Amino acid sequence: MKRWKKAMWITAIVLLILLLQTLFIGYRFSWGPFKSLGDIRMKKLPGNAESYGMQALSQREDSPLAGEKALFLGSSVTYGAASLREGIPEYFGVRLGCDVTKEAVSGTTLVDDADSSYVHRLIANVDPAADYSLVVIQLSTNDATQKKPLGEISESRAPADFDTHTVTGAMEYIIAYAKETWGCPVVFYTGSRYDSAEYAAMVARLFELRDKWGIGVLDLWTSDEFNSLSEAERALYMNDQIHPTKAGYREWWCPEMETQLMDYLNSIG
Residues 174-184: pLDDT tens digits? Predict the structure, then answer.
């Protein structure tokens, strides 16, 4: 009887912890049924003032993607979890004058061990008949946080040969699938630097995959100069060490991403 009661108490405590975690994540990142409550908090952030909205931007006259379609695949950073869902896809939609598809779900991973993974959603949710001229993928911090296995680079280029239960295999699968399906440039982007050895290893692996596949890498991680912010700037630009506000996207991340993307697209003609 004592063992039974102890097991019941442990189960109850575990369930309570899971509930509290769900409540916290839902409120903090405007997730699911907590979206309205999260939005109230996000709207109060100085970096999410209406003046930082993307619609006030102007389109580049030399955009190579004007009138074209672009796919953005990612998790909370692509979704805009701390910026009222206005971030990278919206920025490039305006600046490059392209029609954007945003396939982004907070908390998801590259590694294909759930129906919400990048790999699963790419196949299940994105129309293979769509005429995409660019595919942009977020190097997800969730894989690092959840300590997903990094894996190894394959000698193959066939999607069926990649171990999508590893970060590397999932990235290779996505690259191969996108190239095979749409025949367009494929670009990954990193987050800005934060304290994570696991994510640093993912960034290093991404550059190795660039050498193999000829993909573009929009690198916000490596540069000391780019990552040197004053305390005031960081408070304006970031909700936490991973998620930017509208100001963070518009004033800090996206202009650098735009410069690197244009350089890449010009280099491949």
Answer: 999 999 999 99
